[in-house]
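Example with several molecule types.
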Amino acid sequence: MVAIAIVKIRNLFAVTMLTGIYSLLAASLFVVMDAVDVALTEAAVGAGIMIILMLGTLALTTSKEKNHGKGQNLLALVVVFITGGGLIYGTLDMPHYGDPEAPAHTHLSPHFTQESVDEIGIPNMVTSVLASYRGIDTLGEAVVIYAAAVGVLLVLGSGAVRRRRKDDPKANPKANGGEERS
Amino acid sequence: MEWLGLYNYWVVVVLMMVGFYIVIAQGNLVKKIVGLNIFQTSVFIFFISLAKLDGGTAPVYVEGITEYSNPLPHVLILTAIVVGVALTAMGLALVVRVHELYGSIEEDEIHEQDGKH
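Resulting structure tokens for the full complex:
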């Protein structure tokens, strides 16, 4: 799969492109699983903004990854396989895919799917849950984005200021790329 | 063939472990962030697959249809995707800063330079 190729390829530019393809595949998987809103967001955000952010970073840094010794990779593989085995063992008790008796479908879901159209008046249930039943969550999300934007500006902005002060006065502060466009 | 209904979790676990492997075994900081993204997407797929209901359709009201997928995980994942992008932006900004300070985005080279001081 694409994810495996990302592990192997050392040219970070190609990795970025593969990330886009991966996001697109994930989005189509979401459509298959009836989550159209999520698929839209994933396609726009994962395949769009993420690529811009990563290309901006690569432009500011370097796009070649260097070769490493393989020393610790074996240990990492062992850890990964043990964790994965534990997780797969944990799935044996999980409800099956699409099972109507699963706990996820018996508690709040009937209320949302049967009554939200009358209660909120929006045919798209995802929208009514997002904006009304869980509106505080969405507010928190907006706060997180704001905090991230401020953080990115602080991290990148202070560097430009310091460089200007220390090295030579006429050095242009480097453009901050697309980073703050979160 | 009872256990075949669990395959969605196995896809998630495999993706998650690929992401995990990238994060712990690769030295390049940009690649680590890509690994985090893969890990994150596996969690998204996990939630969305939990929301799927046999015979249900996408949760948009249509006359005459009573079975829909569970909209709640969809909402949670919408929030998570956006938060994930904010995190990615933050991480990449830190990578840019590290590159300004050390001239490298390889973990071992950064450790070497730290050792000299």
